[in-house]
Amino acid sequence: MNRAAIKKRAAAIYRDGLHGVYLNTDRVFLWLLLVQWATAIVLACVVSPYAWAGRVRTLHPHVEIAMVGGLVINALPIALIFLRPGAAITRQVIAVSQMLWAAIFVHLTGGRIETHFHIFGSLAFLSFYRDTRVLVTATVVVALDHLLLGFFWPESVYGIANPEWWRFLEHAAWVIFEDVVLWLGCRRALREMQVLSDREATLEVSMHNIEQEVAERTEELKTAADRYRNVIENTSAVPWEIDRHTFEVLYVAPQLTTVFGLDDAVRHESNFLDLLHPDDREAFRHFIEAHTADSSGRGAHIDSRIVHNNRTLHVRSFVAAQQHGPLAAGVYGISIDITQQRKLEQELAQAQKLESIGQLSAGIAHEINTPTQFIGDNVGFLQDSTGEVFALLETLKTRAAALGSVAGGELADLYASADVEYLKEEIPKAIAQSLDGVGRIAKIVGAMKEFSHPSVERTPYDLNRAIASTITVASNEWKYVAEVRTEFDPSLPLVTVMPGAFNQVILNVIVNAAHAIAEANAATPMVKGSIVVTTRQIDEWAEIRIQDSGTGIPEKIRDRVFDPFFTTKPVGKGTGQGLAIAHDVIVNKHRGTIAVESTPGAGAAFIIRIPIVGADVAGAGVAVAA
C-alpha cells in the first residue's frame, strides 16, 4: 500500500473536513448574530431603563446603541459569511463581532456579573471552529474592552464607578483559563479529525486499490472472454449447450447460420432435436444419454443430418467432458459441417468404383474384342465361301440339266431336296445380321474402352469422340424414353481435360436428362422425348450443350441443383451427388463453367464450357439462367 498516497489523501480529507467545520460554524454564527441583535434591542427597550435609572422606566438611548451598533457589528461578518464562507478572515471578524456583542450585552445590563457569562459562552461557540487563533483574537478583544471601558467607563463593565485597577486582570485570567480548556478541546478534536482522516484515507486507498484490482481483473476477464468468444464464434465449429433432459437449447453460437447456411430463425429453435433429421433424432438422444454419465468425454461424437429447405447437411457433434452436481444440467458440445467431407468420401468411393469398373470394363472389352475379331473374320470368311459354294451348286445344276441322263436327274433331285434356293436367300441374311451384331459389339466395346479411360492427368482429348462413346455406354438409360441426336462441330480441336472425369460429367448429365424425360412422359410412356447434344468452339472455349425435353427445373431450386446432396428425386432414386460432382469436375478441376437454362415444363439445357488449352480463365463458375 502506498503510504505517500495515503498521507496525501488523509491531508485532503482533513482539509475538506475542517473546511466543512468552518462552513457549518459560519452558518451557526449567522443565526447567532441575528438572534443577538434582536435580543439586544429587546434588552435595550425592556431592561436598560431600569438597570440604569433604577426607578423610572423610560426609553433609554441604549436602544439606539443596540439597533445602530448591532447593525454595524453584524454587517461585516454577515457579508463575509456570504462572500467568503469558511475563510480565515471571516472567522476572525466573527470572533471580534461576537466579543463586541458580549460587551454590548454587559453594557446594556449595567455590568451585571451574570451577563459576563456571555463572554464564556461566546468563547465556547467560537471553539466550534477548532481554530485556536480565533480564541486568541476573542481574548484580546475582551481584554481591550475591559481595560479601556474599565478606565473610561467602569459602570458599563463592572457596574460600579471606582473598581480596583486590577479587576480587568482578574476577568482576563478567567477568560484565559477558559481559553486553555477550549484550546485543549480544540487540539483533541483536531487530533481525532486527523485520526479519522487517516482511517478514511486508508480505507479509500484500500477501496481504490481493490476497485482498481477488480477493474483490472474484470478487464482481463472481459478480454479473455472476448478472445474466447472471437475464437469460438469465428471458427467453422458451432459450440452449443442443451439441457440434458429436455434437449432445450440453452446456447448456440451465432455462426450456426453462416457455417451451416441456415436461416436465422433456425438458431432460435427451442429444442435441439428439432434441428436434426427425424431419422437421426432417436440416435442423438441415445448418444447424449449414454455420454452424460461419462466424465471423460474423449472421442465421443455422433454424425447426424440437418435438413433445411430441401438441403441436407451432414454434421458431426462432439460432446465435452460432463460435469456432475447441481450445476450439471447442461450438456456442452460442438458441431462441425462434414458435408464436404462426406462429398469427398463419396467422390473417392465413386472414383474407386469407377476405377474398378474401368479396369473391369477394359478387361472385359479386351476379352470380348479378341473373339469378336475372329468371329467377325470367320463370318466374313463364311460369307465369301458360301458365295463360292452357291456358285458351284448353280454350275452343277446347269450341268445336270444339260446331261439329261439318269445321273443328271439324280443330281437335280438332290439339289431340289436340299432346298438350295431357300438357303441361298436366308444364309446371306443371317451372315449379314451376324456381321451387324458383331459390329455393334465392337462399337460398344470401343465405347467402353473410351469411357473407362484410365488417365487422371490432363491430356488433349477428342470431346466429340468421348461424348459419342458416353452416349453409347449410357444407351440403356435413354433408349427406352428418348431419341438422342448429336450435332458435333467437326472442327472442334482437342481439348485438355481429364478424360475419365469428363466422361463421368457427360454421363451424369445425360442420365439426369433421361430421368427428367421419363418423369415428363410418365402418363404417355410410348411417347419418346429428345436429347440433343451439341458441341462448338467459342473463342478459347469448347462448349457442350445438352438439351432435353423433360420436366424442366423450377426457378426456386434452380440455383441449388449443384449443391451436394440436393435432389428432387424420391428416396432411393438419387443421392444428390451427380450434378455436384459435375460442378466440381468442371469448375474446380477444369476451371470451366457449368450453367443451366430451363423453362418449367419445356425441358432444361446444361451448358458446359471448358478452356481448350486448359488455362485458368477468369469468371469460371456456375451460372443459372431462366
What does this structure look like?
The structure is a single chain. The chain is α+β, with helices and mostly antiparallel strands and about 625 residues long. The protein folds into 4 domains: about 5-205, no CATH class; about 235-335, PAS domain (Beta-Lactamase, 2-Layer Sandwich), CATH 3.30.450.20; about 345-445; about 460-625, Histidine kinase-like ATPase, C-terminal domain (Heat Shock Protein 90). It has 18 helices and 13 strands. The strands form 3 sheets. A 6-stranded mixed sheet has the order 7-9-10-12-11-13, covered by helices on one side. Strands 2-1-5-4-3 form a 5-stranded antiparallel sheet. Strands 6-8 form a two-stranded antiparallel ribbon. The radius of gyration is 60 Å and the shape is rod-shaped.
The Rg value, from CA coordinates, equals 60 Å
**Total domains, how many?**
4
Distance between the termini: 77 Å
- The pLDDT mean sits at 75
Largest sheet at a glance? 6 strands, mixed
